[in-house]
Write a structure and sequence with these properties.
single chain; mainly alpha; three-stranded antiparallel beta sheet; 5 helices; 46% helix
Length: 133
């Protein structure tokens, strides 16, 4: 019987271990776009006009979505696309659906994990599953 405190940590998994389309280079390009959107939102924040953490966060999310959508529409990256342009925003890396959120990666909320049907279908195509997982 092993004690949880002394049990070895599980092996670290990288996105490209899950799917070959999720390369470090592509994820870094998306991260730069997301960071640019967030930086633009912060630069325009105006506490004197009433901006607070919530309004800045909403603007940062919207600006980040815009950066990804604009890059995809312009064909800047052949592998980048948008599956769902709504507030549930889902983008594609060579057909693999990806979402982003600000929070602890090890403890996503139920709301964060919720998938819409079109996203679940695309995940099934990308990972070759039809079990709805």
């Amino acid at each position: 019987m092993t004690d949880e405190a002394t049990a070895p940590a599980p092996p670290r998994r990288f996105p490209w271990d899950l799917h070959p389309a999720l390369t470090e280079e592509r994820l870094a390009a998306c991260a730069r776009l997301l960071a640019r959107g967030r930086a633009d939102a912060l630069a325009l924040a105006d506490p004197w006009a009433g901006d607070d953490a919530w309004s800045i966060g909403c603007r940062a999310y919207s600006f980040s979505r815009h950066q990804l959508r604009r890059a995809a529409e312009a064909g800047r990256y052949a592998w980048l696309g948008v599956l769902d342009g709504t507030h549930h925003f889902v983008f594609l890396i060579e057909g693999v659906p990806v979402r982003f959120y600000r929070g602890d990666a090890d403890e996503p909320t139920r709301r964060t994990l919720r998938q819409q049907e079109v996203e679940a279908e695309q995940l099934a195509l990308a990972f070759g599953r039809d079990d709805g997982a």
